[in-house]
Each structure stands twice: as structure tokens, then as C-alpha cells.
Write a structure and sequence with these properties.
Lipocalin, eight-stranded antiparallel sheet, 2 helices, 11% helix, 33% strand, globular
Length: 169
């Protein structure tokens, strides 16, 4: 059985560089460069840029959008403009891939899992991983004009038809 490590909410925010994810930004709308690694199983991912800030750019893979009960789930990657520190002092990363659980009505997001990579576009061997179980999800506000807010808006607007209604601005 594969052992999964659980981190405290603040440790993950600091260790995985999530604190910059709350910075103000403007939506981008461009597609990610080709050559992004394929996910396990060999399927091709198409990354769509949904948020860009001074310190990072966030992308969503539209094919991963799904409804789980009253929530939406989506896989995203973030590329950072400068190395982010992991919990291990000698390790840094320039990109991360996360699965988010999104509460459209409550304007909140939670990480289901996250992996950090030493190079942009998820290149290199993961330097840090964390998985969060349903009972341990840590919900964070996703205000408009932030990376989390743009991720939420995109996921809620593009989720399959059985998803809850997108938040009104």
C-alpha cells in the first residue's frame, strides 16, 4: 500500500508555494505551450491559461472537469516566475500540479492533491507531494481577482451541465 503524507494546512500553503496563489492578477485566456507532459495513462492534456499574476500563471485541463456531488473538481498546473521553497530547505520548485475541489456557491476551493516539480511545465521528478482526504480538506476563500478566484470562475462556468450554477459576480 502506498503511504500518503498529510500536511497541516499552513505547512502545505508555505511548502507548496500556495500563498502566492492568492495574489491579485488578471485573467490570461491563452493556451499553454505544447509539449506539456501527458498524465498517467497516456492521455494528452490541453492546458488552458485561466489566471496570470506577477509571480505565476495558472492553467486548467478542461478534460478533467467533473461534478462530484454538489462540487466541481478540476486539475490545474501553476508555473512560477521564481523558485518556490519546499518544506525541505534544499529543494525548490517552479511548477505544481493540483486537483482542486471547488464549491461554486460558497466561492471556496480546497486541494485534493498537489505535486511540486523542479522545472516549469511539470518537468523533472516531483520534489514534494501531498494528498488530502475528504474529511481533511481545508477550504480557502476564492475572491474575484485572485488566482483561486479565476480558477473557481473557470471551473464553475465550464463544468458539465449537471454541475451547480456558476457564481454570479
Amino acid at each position: 500500500m502506498k503511504r500518503r503524507t498529510e500536511f497541516s494546512y499552513l505547512a502545505v500553503l508555505a511548502a507548496c508555494g500556495i500563498l502566492p496563489a492568492c495574489s491579485s492578477m488578471a485573467p490570461s485566456g491563452s493556451s499553454a505551450p505544447s509539449g506539456t507532459p501527458a498524465p498517467a495513462g497516456g492521455a494528452t492534456q490541453e492546458w488552458v491559461s485561466v489566471a496570470k499574476a506577477d509571480t505565476q500563471e495558472a492553467f486548467v485541463d478542461p478534460s478533467t472537469l467533473m461534478v462530484n456531488g454538489s462540487m466541481v473538481e478540476v486539475r490545474a498546473k501553476q508555473n512560477f516566475t521564481s523558485p518556490q521553497q519546499t518544506a525541505k530547505k534544499d529543494k525548490t520548485y517552479l511548477s505544481s500540479q493540483s486537483t482542486y475541489r471547488i464549491d461554486c456557491a460558497g466561492h471556496k476551493v480546497a486541494y485534493k492533491d498537489i505535486q511540486a516539480f523542479p522545472e516549469a511545465d511539470l518537468q523533472g521528478k516531483a520534489v514534494q507531494k501531498a494528498t488530502f482526504y475528504e474529511k481533511n480538506l481545508q477550504w480557502m476563500d476564492a475572491p474575484a481577482g485572485t488566482v483561486f478566484g479565476e480558477l473557481l470562475e473557470y471551473a464553475c462556468e465550464h463544468a458539465p451541465a449537471s454541475a451547480p450554477a456558476a457564481p454570479s459576480s
